[in-house]
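notes to self, project folder thing:

trying the whole complex as one job this time. last attempt i did each chain seperately and stitching them together was a nightmare. four parts in total, labels are on each line so i dont mix them up again. if this works i'll redo the older ones the same way
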Amino acid sequence: MLPLERKKRIRSLIEKERHIKIAELSNRFGVSEMTIHRDLKPLLEEGCIAKTFGGVAWKQDGQEANTKVQGCVYCGRGYSERLAYRLILSNNRMETACCAHCGLLRHSQIGGEVMQAICSDFLTHTTISAPLSWFVMDTSVHMGCCHPQVLTFEWKEYAEKFVKGFGGHVYSFEVAKTVLVQKMNGGQNNCHSQK
Amino acid sequence: MLPLERKKRIRSLIEKERHIKIAELSNRFGVSEMTIHRDLKPLLEEGCIAKTFGGVAWKQDGQEANTKVQGCVYCGRGYSERLAYRLILSNNRMETACCAHCGLLRHSQIGGEVMQAICSDFLTHTTISAPLSWFVMDTSVHMGCCHPQVLTFEWKEYAEKFVKGFGGHVYSFEVAKTVLVQKMNGGQNNCHSQK
DNA sequence: TATAGATTGTGTTATTTTGTTATAAGGCGA
DNA sequence: TCGCCTTATAACAAAATAACACAATCTATA
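result (full assembly):
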């Protein structure tokens, strides 16, 4: 078996069994324990498993998120839960973008791999499905994340009411993606807090 | 079984059974009592269990005390950081209200003792001084906290823009307190999610 | 074929875990 | 309160495991 294949299988085995001994992995794959330790090293650094004495344990996503606050998958910036845009991919991995701006761009980039996309209603913070959300751009409220700014709303009616007060335009998911890409190509290539 | 896995199981076992003998745990997991004692040590320090002579007992309140999110000082309900209204008193104690509704009422109640009052801008979540904030009531957006609902804004301009879209009225701090008390006395005495 | 790089196994040392023994302390009946 | 039994704690030794260094093996490429 190729090393890479072994590593993949080890990963899925841990994910499935939750806890497993190094010795058992060594037996199962017919390699020395030292090799198993070496195979586990990248997984450990990635943060999806934890070593215990004598074995490994799968780290739940919740824990992972707690211990490791990674940056936005698109711009690398830190993010808050409030504006975050999450992409659940076909390989069961999750990517987090700092805001809908980066989320929509990333979504456009890797569209085929995305199984689910979720974001948060700007007013109520309810979790919503991105493709069903409404997106507001060019508004006068600035959250200081990325530019051009994109705010997300659960209901079209509320997005429109928001625009009535604070200006801007309301877009559906597909249109928002197109418009955003156009805006980004229209000379404003920088992401963060640019006017 | 891996040590970590055993520790987890011991924890959930105690939580489930409420109290259990050390000897039984020793039997159940096939390790010496000394090992069980060692496994219990971190749980003990964490405060979620209590040792009795010969056994352990689950401490309900102990754990709650550690992780405890206290309720609103006025209505007792749990609160989110987003809507919370905090009162710093002259004796250096801090009180937290679940939202501006309860915060303003509490503020009116113990006015003299309050040194500082802080809340959060509804749009940006910036922390702001309550007496300098602008308060929106009777709007069509409902956050599901207390009724009559009060939203807080850093800038009057933004509060007005919000009202333009979502309806309602903008009040300064002093006026908001008065209006709220009037509304509460006008027959709508209940606090939570009442229409 | 020769060579560089990657992968793997082995032996050694350091660390962690566990059980045993000895000692201290708590519970309980007389 | 005293004495007896049970349980808790501490110290030590043994076993299991991790980490490291180095050598051997394998793979790809010129």
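what i see at first glance: The longest strand of chain A covers residues 114-120.
need to look closer tmrw
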